[in-house]
Amino acid sequence: MSDTTIVHLLRHGEVHNPGGILYGRLPGYRLSEDGVLMAKAAAKWFADRDVTALFSSPMQRALETAAPLAEAFDLPVTVDDRLIEAGNHFEGLTFGAGAGSLRRPEHWRHLVNPFKPSWGEPYKGLAARMRAVVIRAREAARGHEAVCVSHQLPVWILRLHAERRRLWHHPNRRECALASVTSLAFDGNRLVEVSYSEPAAGIAKGPSVAGA
């Protein structure tokens, strides 16, 4: 058996969200038509890979993204709650100035510390839970490859942690597009490479809500 194991972090596809809500952990947010195409594109990208384990966030959009992979590899989808979207004070609201929630003073106290951050789940805790899932996936697919379907912020924080970079950042600088793949390659238990791919590039027609 090979000593090389690869754990892929797949961000879900585009979500049907005509209201522009920061939906976070709210139930009922499904993939859009383009999101379904993105999930299929991701499954096609993995077609020649040695995937033997598949994990997913419990959110509907993540499970729908995992479905084509489950079918292609004839694998069960193991739901791991640690892959869920990050908690956020602004969940269920539109975010921004103008008509968004930033113009309302009652929200300002949640914006005082961007390093933690004060508006949501602490970055250090987020990195810890994502790292624990990666270890679980690595062990489940030892010598092969695993896929974990998650969300933009958890995947990006995990990458920052893996590359030993600072965890606080500007949301617009995240390299984690819809249905993108962030891959962690291990030699035994030692991380040796982090790589990034965008199997669904060109499918999305517009920007997505940051952190979705």
TrEMBL record:
Protein name as catalogued: Histidine phosphatase family protein
Listed InterPro entries: His_Pase_superF_clade-1, His_PPase_superfam, PGM_Phosphatase
Taxonomy, superkingdom: Bacteria
CDD domains: HP_PGM_like
Lineage: Bacteria, Bacillati, Actinomycetota, Actinomycetes, Streptosporangiales
Source species: Actinomadura graeca
Gene3D superfamilies, sorted: Phosphoglycerate mutase-like (3.40.50.1240)
